[in-house]
Design goal:
- The chain is an alpha/beta fold.
- The chain has two domains: 2-87, 2-Layer Sandwich (Nucleotidyltransferase, domain 5), CATH 3.30.420.40; 97-243, 2-Layer Sandwich (Nucleotidyltransferase, domain 5), CATH 3.30.420.40.
- It has helices at 36-49, 67-81, 108-120, 155-165, 185-212, 243-254, 259-262; strands at 2-7, 11-18, 21-29, 59-64, 86-87, 97-98, 125-131, 134-140, 145-153, 218-223, 238-239.
- The strands form two sheets. It has a six-stranded mixed beta sheet with strand order 6-9-8-7-10-11, sandwiched between helices.
- Strand 7 and strand 8 (134-140) form a beta hairpin.
- The longest helix is centred in the C-terminal third of the chain and has 28 residues, at 185-212.
């Protein structure tokens, strides 16, 4: 079995593959401070609680946008699984032609999503919308060219900015709402978050299509924790919450012939 780990800004998103089948997904919140023992014990316990024997894990793949956690997560893999993880970082094989001015600037999470999308849907123009701490758009051509994208605050950051920057507006639960004109302060914030993001999604996707893919078909993929709120609005052609985990699995397979070289050192992405 293969353990895949996406170390994000606010959560660690993990998964276990049995062959090509994703059999387990889990999340752990963090404050960007986590010891190797805390991480290792958590990983082993969450596997056991879900009837996965930690000894059955024979490979680990990870990506991170939090450099400060790379050492502790890598050390946890060594200490608790006796495995050096494959780290998705600059220099490994991705199958993508990255058109960024500086390809090393592209976040490893965005690369993992893009690998998965191009492997799952070959010969497709693709827009990936990842709705997590930040909302990111990644744009790929049917020739696997990574053109670039957009980054904006995610739903939680939008909500917290209202709480931090005002005297009376409270923190609210982020939910799907049905009425755009709400009749309480809490509902006003919830409506504002939800419907403004609908407008952002529809507007940005429409403009990307017009400017980069006129008269061409484009597949739009939604992923990330908040994408489920918009799953029934015909914004996304596919909703794949575990896309990044699949990307890590594909990246591991792409680099399997160079595994020894790539896993010798745990480095920052």
């Amino acid at each position: 079995m293969i353990l895949t780990l996406d170390v994000g800004n606010s959560q660690i998103f993990g998964g276990v593959f049995d062959g090509d089948r994703l059999v387990l997904q889990f999340r752990k919140a963090h404050k960007q401070i986590l010891s190797s023992d805390e991480a290792g014990i958590y990983f082993k316990n969450v596997l056991r609680e879900n009837n996965v024997d930690p000894k059955s894990i024979h490979r680990i793949a990870l990506c991170s946008v939090v450099p400060d956690l790379m050492h502790s997560i890598g050390s946890a893999c060594l200490k608790y699984f006796n495995l050096r993880p494959f780290v998705l970082r600059s220099g490994v094989r991705t199958g993508l032609n990255i058109k960024y001015r500086n390809p090393q600037e592209v976040g490893a999470d965005r690369i993992a999503n893009s690998i998965a999308a191009t492997q799952l849907f070959p010969q497709k123009n693709i827009i990936i919308v990842d709705m997590g701490t930040a909302t990111t758009f990644c744009v790929l051509t049917k020739n696997r060219e990574y053109l670039g994208g957009l980054i904006l605050p995610g739903l939680r950051l939008m909500m917290e900015s209202l709480e931090w920057g005002t005297s009376k507006l409270p923190k609210v639960e982020i939910v799907k709402t049905t009425e755009i004109v709400a009749r309480s302060t809490i509902e006003n914030i919830q409506s504002g978050l939800y419907f403004s993001n609908i407008c952002i999604l529809e507007g940005v996707i429409s403009r990307i299509k017009q400017e980069y893919f006129p008269n061409e078909e484009v597949m739009v993929i939604g992923t990330g924790g908040f994408s489920k709120l918009f799953g029934d609005l015909n914004i996304f052609h596919k909703l794949i919450p575990g896309l990044i985990l699949q990307g890590l699995k594909f990246a591991l397979d792409l680099n399997s012939s160079e595994r020894t070289k790539n896993e010798q050192t745990i480095t920052e992405i």
